[in-house]
Design goal:
By secondary structure, the protein is of the alpha/beta class. The protein has a single domain, classed as Uracil-DNA glycosylase-like domain (Uracil-DNA Glycosylase, subunit E). It is built from 9 helices and 5 strands. Helix 1 runs parallel beside helix 6, helix 5 crosses helix 9 and helix 6 crosses helix 7. The protein binds iron/sulfur cluster (SF4). Iron/sulfur cluster binds next to helix 3 and helix 6. This is Type-5 uracil-DNA glycosylase.
């Protein structure tokens, strides 16, 4: 597989994403392959433009300007799945949900739930460690207006499907927002789970349990930690804490 200047394996087509994701043997290999992906021309152009132009307050920083891999250990029993990296958050720092207001919310909540060693996440090397949880995005590149197209969502889905397969103890997926909820169904089908018909509608606190190749997996819906929700009070800290508390309860070994 060809590599780019940074040494990441390069993927250029949707078929290549599927092949490359399925061939990743562990999370480290998957993260490297995600980081070299160029399969969605619109998103590649946008993420790299943002990284070149920068926001004035970050003009002295080198932006990542690539797809953003997941974060967290392979023995995670809980996954948290968001929408996509923010242009000046994950696309700048290179770590999921890191360096923006949404990240402040989710990592503080993970810390309160005992799943992170600190409540803040500012940059790679800030000491953040997750325990029992893996955090990832349904779409790995920052999209214009935070809105990937359905085709981009589908092209990216094999990365998340493989990531879930590479978490052998996974029992619970906390899905942040309706986009992630919709994006997750084909991902779960790809990962071998039997899907309910009709698909349950997204809502905060909605809980759905599926049967899959490694036993039951419960999906928990939560409103997204976007500023639109947290500034307006649609999502409060107690609401998010309740969902993560339920996730912890469901993830306990039986
Ligand atoms: S959105 Fe996903 S599939 Fe598309 S270029 Fe980024 S990492 Fe690749």
């Amino acid at each position: 597989m060809a590599t780019d200047a940074a040494g990441f394996p390069v993927t250029r087509t949707p078929a290549g994403v599927l092949r490359s994701a399925r061939g990743a043997r562990d999370l480290a290999a998957l993260d490297a392959r995600v980081s070299g992906c160029r399969a969605c021309p619109r998103l590649v152009g946008w993420r790299e433009d943002v990284a070149r132009v920068k926001r004035a307050s970050f003009r002295d920083q080198d932006y990542w300007g690539r797809p953003v891999p997941g974060l967290g250990p392979a023995d995670a029993r809980i996954a948290v799945v968001g929408l996509a990296p923010a242009a000046h958050g994950g696309n700048r720092t290179g770590r999921v949900f890191t360096g923006d207001r949404s990240g402040d919310w989710i990592f503080a909540a993970l810390w309160r739930a005992g799943l992170a060693n600190q409540p803040t996440s500012t940059h790679i090397g800030d000491g953040l460690e997750l325990t029992g949880v893996r955090v990832a995005a349904a779409v790995r590149c920052a999209p214009p207006a935070n809105a990937p197209t359905p085709a981009e969502r589908d092209t990216c889905s094999p990365w998340l499907a493989r990531e879930l397969e590479l978490l052998p103890q996974l029992r619970v997926v906390v899905v942040l927002g309706g986009f992630g909820w919709t994006a997750l169904w084909p991902v779960l089908a790809e990962a071998g789970y039997r899907l309910p018909r009709p698909r349950p509608a997204f809502g905060h606190g909605v809980e759905v349990t599926l049967e899959g190749p490694r036993g039951p997996l419960t999906l928990l819906g939560s409103y997204h930690v976007s500023q639109q929700n947290t500034f307006t009070g649609k999502l409060t800290e107690p609401m998010l804490d309740a969902v993560l508390g339920r996730a912890r309860e469901l993830a306990e070994p039986r």
